UniProtKB/TrEMBL annotation, chain A:
Compartment list: Cell envelope
Signal recorded as keyword: yes
Organism (species): Marinomonas vulgaris
Signal peptide: 1-19
Broad class of the protein's primary localization: other
Domain named Imelysin-like: residues: 47-401
Alphabetized UniProt keyword annotations: Signal
Protein name as catalogued: Peptidase
Record lineage: Bacteria, Pseudomonadati, Pseudomonadota, Gammaproteobacteria, Oceanospirillales
InterPro entries, A to Z: Imelysin-like, Imelysin_sf
UniProt xrefs under Pfam families: Peptidase_M75 (PF09375)
TrEMBL record, chain B:
Signal peptide start and end residues: 1-21
Domain of life of the native organism: Bacteria
Organism whose genome encodes this protein: Marinomonas vulgaris
Keyword Disulfide bond assigned: no
Keyword Signal: yes
Domain Imelysin-like: 38-315
Name of the protein described by the UniProt record: Imelysin family protein
Compartment list: Cell envelope
The entry's keywords: Signal
Length: 431, 351
């Protein structure tokens, strides 16, 4: 669902729009214009997707080492690499919604939630054995060399990136058939989290990948799947990293627009991620259902960090800054500076809201360190935990309201922010 | 009810006009008293009958008592359709609206959570505030339908499942009864709040919210209830139809469409009467289209949502109804604007 804002008649000064030309402004104290903000936003994307790619390559190296020697220590190292790879990627999510190229591509790398029984063995007690909606709910590709998908026989003898991308991903037109991307790899590295809303993540043993001491069968095919899915993730990230380089399709599509349309793209991503996606689908719905399957990184229990870095990405987009994985910073012309030029109060309010969201996300991170991961926080009767999550939702909603004020202030036309069913009347939920 | 994955609620548009006090009293009072209060009263009564029927079934399980419980469920689920269009007022508290019906449940959350409850300690469900804070997936009609119709559940053979069924229906009745009672003691204006503190006309704001909810629901009926399951624009999946297990999918749509005409005509003056004053042609166009919707929906075969016909046949049969509801959406949106309300955005469009 999209919400179409009705613009109000507050125009950005035409003098301001032409004052600074096309140069990227690297000094925050300098005057900025819409064009410089949009160009810098593209530069940040280039850095973020580049980091996403390099951390995925590091993950690949860790997985190679693990498969060469499938010990618990090497499995843990691969898991650590996966968590590290999420840091830049989650900060890239603010580029969704507004940029069609990103949105069309995103499902390949971060689709969620997934019916993991498509990929590998699952516990029938918690997962069940069939779904009303998904005939491939328990297809278990790792255990099956032949599959029937949409009435057609598919040869899955060799598990390759092509098989995953072309036949398994969203098989039978069902979104929950997530065969590729971070969460497919996450499932392979952690396995199902069978702890419900109690503490604890997935506990897949390293021996699930051990050819000589194989547990749960089909270790050769599980290894092949893990390798293929990781290779595919890298290929997909390469594509997006290239898209944001000079002359890349996403950058060109962004910059071909007017600068005002470019600002709309930025704000669409900020508002849609904050409100509909992060606040609604990924967080509030979990509270309403108290269901551990409703957490974004449900196998690894890394959701607190994923949410934190999603929120961070929104803040980055507004402030025009991004801390790279090597510790260096990308800084430049920002929406913040643009707004502050003629409405300092609005810029201050926006920054306050972004900081409040960051603090709320940090509170979830702190809770996770004490064993209260996201799935524990959303458990029924965990009043304090629920409230912690609700505070995060509320802060995202507040942030989005001010994002709307920014949109109105800039007099941007036809912006559609993603909404969320689960955010309807949030104030009444926990009365 | 969760039926539309992307439903917006961030901010409500503001009325762009000033009206004299009491101008909207006719339609607002009519809709409140004759559609909402009456609708919830009926819904509450049949919720109680459902509770009693499941009690009787669990006391003496048999094909006969199961059938009686299923019949009570069907009556109650269709009574819900009369008031489903409105997520406003008492139903918004304790997530009741979403709990009355959690749909579509694409991930099988209801079945999974029911299994967990049935396998767990039943005493947990007797804890204070358990049901008001429980998952929306297990608190209402979707859960009851699963327990009565889903092959994974056999309450006639399982005392724990039957106990669960009774607890769900008891909570469901409590909720429906609470909403009905709260409406009996209130008026629509009591449920709108001046968030900005700048003063407002509660009557017009309440009616505006009614109209907005009506528009959104009409969109949902066309998209989520009709087009999506039959694959009007994409792949068919009849299991995405509302209450498909109990075969109420078509009847639910018919009830929804019937409720629309009531909304339009109740009160003195009614919305229709006021629309006639402002824009006679548009008022009449909407009237004719709402009537046509019902006629076309009633002409669809009873087994419309059942397997046994091709997707093409089903889509062909749906075309007149889809077009008719689309026209209704246009007329209603235009009429709402003509009456001076500002409905600023599209919401339950399932996009």
């Amino acid at each position: 669902m999209k919400r179409f804002l009705t613009p109000i008649a507050v125009c950005v000064s035409s003098v301001m729009l032409t004052a600074c030309g096309t140069a990227v402004v690297k000094n925050e104290t300098s005057a900025v214009n819409a064009e410089s903000v949009v160009v810098h936003y593209a530069d940040m994307a280039e850095a973020i997707y580049s980091d996403s790619l390099t951390t995925a390559q590091t993950l690949r190296t860790s997985i190679d080492a693990f498969l060469a020697e499938p010990t618990e220590a090497n499995l843990q190292a691969a898991r650590t690499a996966w968590i590290a790879a999420r840091v830049p990627y989650q900060q890239s999510e603010v580029y969704r919604f507004g940029n069609a190229i990103v949105d069309d591509w995103e499902g390949k790398v971060n689709a969620w939630p997934l019916d993991e029984g498509l990929i590998d063995y699952v516990s029938v007690d918690s997962y069940g054995s069939e779904s009303d909606i998904n005939p491939l709910y328990s297809a278990n590709v790792i255990a099956s060399k032949n599959l029937m998908i949409g009435g057609k026989k598919v040869d899955a003898t060799n598990i390759t990136p092509e098989l995953i991308a072309e036949s398994l991903q969203e098989a039978d037109g069902i979104e929950a058939n997530v065969a590729s991307g971070y969460h497919a790899i996450e499932f392979l590295l952690w396995g199902q989290d069978l702890n419900g809303t109690n503490p604890g993540a997935g506990e897949r043993p390293a021996s699930d990948f051990d050819l000589e001491n194989c547990t749960n069968g089909h270790c050769d095919r599980r290894r092949a799947y893990l390798s293929a899915a990781t290779d595919l993730l890298i290929t997909d990230l390469e594509e997006m990293a290239d898209n944001w380089k000079q002359g890349g399709a996403a950058r060109v599509a962004l910059l071909e627009q007017t600068p005002e349309q470019g600002l709309s793209t930025i704000l669409t991503g900020m508002g849609s991620l904050a409100y509909g996606e992060l606040g609604g689908e990924r967080t509030k719905l979990g509270l309403m259902l108290h269901d551990p399957e409703e957490e974004h990184d449900c196998f690894s229990d890394n959701t607190h960090w994923s949410h934190y870095y999603d929120a961070k990405g929104i803040k980055n987009a507004y402030l025009g800054e991004y801390e790279r994985v090597d510790g260096s910073w990308v800084k430049g012309a920002s929406l913040s500076a643009l707004i502050a030029q003629d409405n300092l109060a609005l810029d201050t309010e926006m920054k306050q809201k972004l900081n409040a969201t960051e603090m709320a996300a940090q509170a979830m991170v702190d809770a996770a360190k004490q064993g209260q991961t996201f799935d524990v926080l959303i458990a029924m009767n965990n009043t304090q935990g629920n409230q912690l999550v609700q505070t995060f939702v509320d802060s995202l909603v507040d942030e989005t309201r001010v994002t709307e004020d920014v949109i109105h202030h800039l007099d941007l036309q036809g912006i559609a922010l993603e909404g969320s069913d689960s955010l309807d009347n949030p104030g009444a939920v926990f009365e | 009810m969760n039926y539309f994955p992307k439903l917006l609620a961030l901010a409500i548009s503001t009325t762009s006009f000033m009206v004299s006090a009491g101008e909207w009293q006719g339609p607002l009072g009519g809709i409140t008293n004759q559609v909402i209060k009456q609708g919830y009263s009926v819904f509450s009564d049949s919720s109680q009958q459902l509770q009693q029927a499941t009690q009787a079934f669990c006391a003496a399980p048999s094909d006969q008592s199961l059938l009686q419980a299923q019949t009570a469920f069907q009556t109650n689920a269709l009574d819900w359709q009369q008031v489903q269009w409105l997520n406003f007022g008492p139903v918004t508290y304790f997530m009741r609206y979403y709990a009355f019906e959690y749909w579509p449940d694409k991930k099988g959350v209801t079945q999974r959570q029911l299994r967990a409850l049935a396998q767990g300690d039943p005493a947990v469900m007797d804890a204070p505030k358990f049901w008001t804070s429980a998952s929306i997936a297990v608190r209402g009609l979707t859960a009851v339908e699963s327990l009565l119709y889903h092959p994974d559940f056999t309450p006639s053979e399982s005392a724990t499942q039957c106990q669960l069924l009774q607890k769900v229906t008891a909570h469901h009745f409590d909720s429906a009864n609470a909403v009905a009672k709260q409406w009996q003691e209130a008026k629509a204006q009591d449920w709108v709040f001046d968030e900005e503190g700048s003063g407002f006309d509660a009557e017009s704001v309440a009616l505006e919210q009614f109209l907005q909810q009506w528009i959104e629901h009409m969109s949902a009926v066309k998209d989520a209830k009709l087009e999506t399951p039959i694959g009007y624009n994409s792949r068919e999946n009849l299991k995405l139809a509302e209450f498909y297990r109990s075969d109420l999918s078509l009847k639910a749509i018919q009830r929804n469409l019937q409720s629309y005409r009531e909304i339009y005509h109740v009160g003195s003056p009614s919305l229709y009467d006021m629309a006639l004053q402002k824009s006679p042609e548009l008022a009449q166009q909407l009237e004719e289209q709402l009537t046509k919707n019902i006629k076309i929906a009633l002409q669809l075969p009873d087994d419309y949502f059942q397997s046994g016909r091709t997707q093409e046949e089903r889509v062909e049969l749906a075309i007149p109804l889809v077009k008719s509801i689309s026209n209704s959406q246009t007329y209603l949106a235009n009429l709402v604007t003509t009456l001076g309300f500002q409905i600023g955005f599209n919401s339950r469009d399932g996009d």
